[in-house]
């Protein structure tokens, strides 16, 4: 399955050295230029991001419809805006995105969305990872990924790890 991704999913998986999960779940992960730029900003924090772009499944594509991107920029950041427009242009039905506003906008435009936690639940269901909790804990501790206590408990319960 081909998907389009915003920055959060790829960046956070990279920060906890779990980027390979995307390889096991998807055929191709397509990102727009602005997402690639946002990922490269991790270098300012001492991270070598070259491994992100050397992965076999990652593909960077340019958005054609700049007007639609400009329209979305009134509500969303550049990476989210380009990711949504790229998903529409390429007719890719699934967008990997965590931010609430971006998710809502994508869904309103008919794009199915899943975030980082949804990807981890898929990986657990497919037997790719034995346990969700250590990965979510690492996201919180090492990547400073925010998750409410309520959502944390709900995700672990859904994964059968309550």
Which key terms come to mind for this protein?
162 residues, alpha/beta, 5-stranded parallel β-sheet
Quick take:
The protein is of the alpha/beta class and about 160 residues long. Helix content is about 55%, strand content about 10%.
Structure description:
With 162 residues, this protein is α/β, with parallel strands linked by helices. The chain is 53% helix and 12% strand. The protein contains 10 helices and 5 strands; from the N terminus they run E-H-H-E-H-H-E-H-H-E-H-E-H-H-H. It has helices at residues 7-15, 20-25, 33-40, 50-54, 66-72, 78-89, 100-108, 116-125, 133-142, 149-158, and strands at residues 2-5, 28-32, 58-61, 94-96, 112-114. Strands 3-2-1-4-5 form a 5-stranded parallel beta sheet. Helix 7 links the parallel strand 4 (94-96) and strand 5 (112-114). Helix 3 (33-40) runs antiparallel to helix 6 (78-89) and helix 5 packs across helix 6. The longest helix has 12 residues, at 78-89. It is globular. 33% of the residues are buried.
Order of helices and strands: EHHEHHEHHEHEHHH
Sequence stretches where pLDDT stays below 50 over 5 or more residues: none
**Main beta sheet:** 5 strands, parallel
Q: What is the residue-mean pLDDT, rounded to a whole number?
A: 95
In angstroms, what separates the terminal alpha carbons? Answer: 30 Å
**Structural class by secondary-structure content:** alpha/beta
State the strand order across the main sheet: 3-2-1-4-5
Helix share of residues?
A: 40-55%
What coarse outline follows from CA principal-axis ratios? globular
Individual helix count: 10
Nearest-angstrom radius of gyration?
A: 15 Å
Annotation, overall tally of beta strands: 5
Strand content: 5-15%
């Amino acid at each position: 399955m081909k998907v389009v991704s915003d920055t959060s999913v790829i960046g956070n998986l990279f920060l906890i050295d779990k980027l390979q999960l995307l390889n096991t779940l998807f055929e191709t992960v397509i990102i727009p230029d602005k997402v690639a730029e946002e990922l490269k900003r991790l270098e300012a924090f001492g991270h070598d991001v070259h491994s992100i772009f050397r992965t076999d499944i990652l593909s960077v594509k340019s958005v054609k419809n700049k007007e639609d991107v400009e329209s979305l920029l009134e509500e969303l950041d550049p990476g989210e805006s380009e990711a949504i427009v790229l998903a529409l242009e390429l007719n890719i039905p699934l967008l990997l995105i965590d931010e609430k506003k971006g998710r809502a906008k994508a869904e309103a435009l008919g794009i199915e969305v899943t975030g980082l936690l949804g990807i981890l639940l898929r990986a657990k269901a497919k037997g790719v990872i034995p346990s969700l909790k250590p990965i979510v804990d690492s996201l919180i501790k090492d990547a400073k990924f925010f998750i409410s206590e309520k959502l944390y408990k709900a995700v672990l319960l859904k994964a059968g790890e309550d």
